[in-house]
Every structure is written in C-alpha cells, then in structure tokens.
TrEMBL record:
Species of provenance: Fusarium austroamericanum
Entry's transmembrane regions: 12-34, 70-93, 242-266, 286-308, 328-354, 366-386, 398-421
Keyword Transmembrane among record annotations: yes
Protein name per its UniProtKB record: Transporter
Cellular compartments per GO CC: endoplasmic reticulum; membrane
Record keywords: Membrane, Transmembrane, Transmembrane helix
Example GO BP: transmembrane transport
C-alpha cells in the first residue's frame, strides 16, 4: 500500500471516528438524561423545519449559478435514480424473502444530510480533500462548501420521497390524500373547532406577545385558510387529487432549496444577498448572516439527535424482558447494500461517466460526492416510521438493533471514501 493511500485511509478513519464520537455524545446525553427523547424530537423538528431550509438557502444561493446549473440537475437525476432503484430492489427482496415492512425504507433512505455533511467537514479538517482541488487557488473551505451544496441537493430528493412515499413504503398510509388535505384546511380555517373565548385561563400555550397582536395574527391566519378552503371547494375533483398528491412531496427543505435556487439564479438577488456590503450586498451583513448562523446549527444538532434516539433504543432493549429477535437476513442485506453494493456500483458508474462522457464536467468534488451519495447508514427517520407501524415490540427492538449496528460499523464507509478519492485522482 502506497504512502498516499495510507495517509488517505488514516484521514478517512479519523473523519469517521469524529462523526461516531459526535453520535456518542448524543448517546451520552440521552443515557444520562441530560436530553430527553421528547427534547430530541423537538430539536429534530426545528432542525428539519428551520435550520435545514436556512442552510439550503445560503449554501445553494451562494454556490449555484447559470453556468453550473446543469451539474445540480445531474445530481437531482442521480439521486432520483438510485432512490427509485433502491425501492425496486427493496420491493423485490421483500416479495422473495418475506422481509419486514421497514426493510425497503432502510435500504432506500440513507442518511443524506447530517452524517455526510459532518463527514465532509471532518475530511476537510484531516486534509484528505486537498486531492480534489481544481487548482492551487481552490482552498479547503471552497471544497467543503461545494461538497455540502452537492449533498444538500441530493438530500432534497430524499426528503421529498420520504414525505411523499414513506408511509406507503411501510404500508401504513391508508388515508385518502384529498380527504386529508380538506381536513387540514378546515382545521386551519377554524371550521372543525370552537373559537377561543377571552375568558380562557392562561397556560403554557398562551402568547407572551403584548396587546392584541396575537389575536390579529390568528385572525389573519384563519381568514387566509378560509379563503384557501373556498378556492379548494370550487376545484374539480381531479385537480384536487393532483394538488393533494403533489403537496405530499412538499416539505420545508424543498421550499428552502427553491428559494436558494431563485436567489442564485437571479443576479440582482444574488448580489443583494451574497455580495459584500460595499459591493451592493444590502442583505448580506444581517439577513444572510443570520440565516447562515442558524443553518450551521443543523449538522451537529441533527447528529446529536441521532445519538439521543440510539440511547432511547438502548434503554428500551435493557428494560424489556425480551429484547427482540435480531433478524440476521434483513440486517445482513441492509449492511451489504448500504456499505458495499451501492458504494461499488456508484464508484464504477460515476467513474464511467466522467471518463467516457462530459456530463459531469471537470469538478472532482462533484465526482467524489456523487460516488458517496448512495452509501452510508440508514436514516434515523426509520425510527419514526417504526413507531407508526403496527409492528409489535419485538420488531421495534429489532429495528433499533439494526440501526445501532449500522451506525456502529459506519467507519466502514472509510473504505468507500478512500476508493472514491483514488477513483477521482
């Protein structure tokens, strides 16, 4: 083994160990009850609904422009292809070997946000990514930011599929989308509840804002929802069904990505939001910086949440009289696909693309990130899917063990990192 391969492998191991230690800190916080499971859920919710959209707005708005838009489109296509291929493989294996319901989501939805983003940061700190530089002027920070933007675009597809197909993949989404959307509009319009009275006692949900402002905000929100519901009722049933189906795939990260793309593509907006103040960046020093500040919270906090959820699974296994039967066949197949098969296939396919065609351009960072996109442990959203599933406690314990096993062996991804770096060199 050459010295360059050894140094790259050591750097990749160090980066993986850094990610694993960050997860361990979350496990420690959960085991010592510094953070509860409910707190972890709330942190995860604000990460997905506020911090990740902010990160997408700033990162994509900074990186994307008309000259490189085709590269981001290629990432979207690649993310869609490998996710749909994983779903097809999952369905086929489930039919042939009677796999549990969670098997298909486990091999489809890998962690495409917090884990790879933190891994990229750690790889940059270890000096491993310097081999991917375009030129001597391409700094480590530039490489990390480009890699983040590529992974974030990939995560948008994963999040859309999770929101739209997650329940169907588990076989638990029986509610008609039109009825669900109609009920949601009625709830927000105040047609399914009674208006609050002024004599209500204050509680933990009582607004801290002074005066009549909270009432005005609620009234405006209710009037908006009533107007939306009035328009909804007039739509043709086929249009209602199409809209209800499309909105299933819409999530806060998707909205953040769209805003980021718009800011990146429109030159006056890009100048106003991302240029220095003296160069016309009137929003940069206050609005953009504030979005960047909360966006940077996403990566570490979401990895900490992974540790909290794993700690909860550990406690449940210890407290239960039966810790659940570990299904070795599903576990082995998930590990095989997530850490071996997909890395090998993606490295070979992406290498063929950039050696035989000009589709991927000349950016080695793009090649490297696309090779790693299908790899890695399953997303922790599988825990939430398991909670809404009708599986018994033994199955839930088995799911927890599968996730803990996959994250415990996640340093195996170092092999894929080294192979990808060598393939791009």
């Amino acid at each position: 083994m050459s010295s360059s391969v050894k140094s790259t492998f050591v750097g990749a191991i160090q980066a993986s160990a850094s990610v694993l230690l960050t997860i361990f800190y979350g496990v420690f916080a959960g085991q010592t009850k510094l953070l509860s499971v409910e707190t972890g859920r709330q942190i995860s919710k604000i990460c997905i609904k506020m911090f990740l959209p902010a990160l997408l707005i700033v990162n994509l708005g900074t990186q994307i422009e008309a000259s490189n838009a085709s590269l981001y489109l290629t990432i979207l296509v690649w993310a869609l292809v490998y996710n749909l291929a994983s779903i097809a493989v999952g369905y086929a294996l489930t039919k042939c070997f009677s796999m549990p319901k969670w098997f298909t989501p486990a091999i489809t939805f890998n962690n495409t946000t917090s884990y790879p983003l933190l891994l990229i940061q750690s790889l940059g700190s270890a000096g491993v990514l310097s081999a991917l530089a375009k030129s001597e002027d391409d700094t480590s920070d530039d490489i990390i930011e480009r890699a983040k933007s590529f992974f974030l675009v990939c995560s948008v597809v994963s999040n859309m599929l999770t929101f739209g197909l997650g329940g169907k993949l588990l076989g638990v989404s029986d509610e008609d989308p039109v009825e669900s959307m109609d009920e949601d509009l009625r709830d927000r319009a105040g047609q399914n509840d009674h208006p609050p009275t002024d004599s209500q006692e204050p509680d933990e949900r009582t607004s801290l804002l002074p005066g009549r402002l909270p009432r005005y905000v609620k009234k405006a929100s209710r009037h908006t929802a009533q107007a939306q519901h009035a328009v909804w009722d007039k739509l043709h049933p086929r249009v209602q069904r199409a809209l209800a189906y499309i909105t299933q795939f819409i999530s806060p990260p998707t909205v953040g990505a769209i805003i980021g793309v718009v800011l990146g593509f429109v030159p006056p907006l890009k100048k106003a939001f991302f240029n220095d103040s003296e160069d016309g960046g009137i929003f940069n020093a206050w609005l953009t910086v504030s979005l960047k500040n909360i966006g940077e919270l996403f990566v570490t906090l979401q990895v900490i949440v992974v540790g909290i959820k794993l700690a909860h699974s550990l406690r449940r296994m210890r407290q239960g009289s039966d810790s659940g039967n570990l299904h070795w066949l599903p576990l082995s197949v998930v590990v095989l696909i997530r850490f071996i098969i997909w890395p090998v296939l993606s490295i070979l396919f992406i290498r063929m693309l950039f050696t035989q065609t000009d589709v991927l351009g000349e950016d080695r960072v793009l090649w490297f990130t696309m090779m790693l996109m299908p790899a890695g442990p399953p997303a922790m959203k599988l825990v939430a899917m398991a909670e809404v599933d009708d599986a018994d406690e033994n199955d839930k314990m088995s799911i927890a063990r599968v996730l803990m096993t996959c994250y415990a062996i996640s340093p195996l991804l170092s092999i894929a990192v080294v192979a990808s770096l060598k393939a791009c060199s």
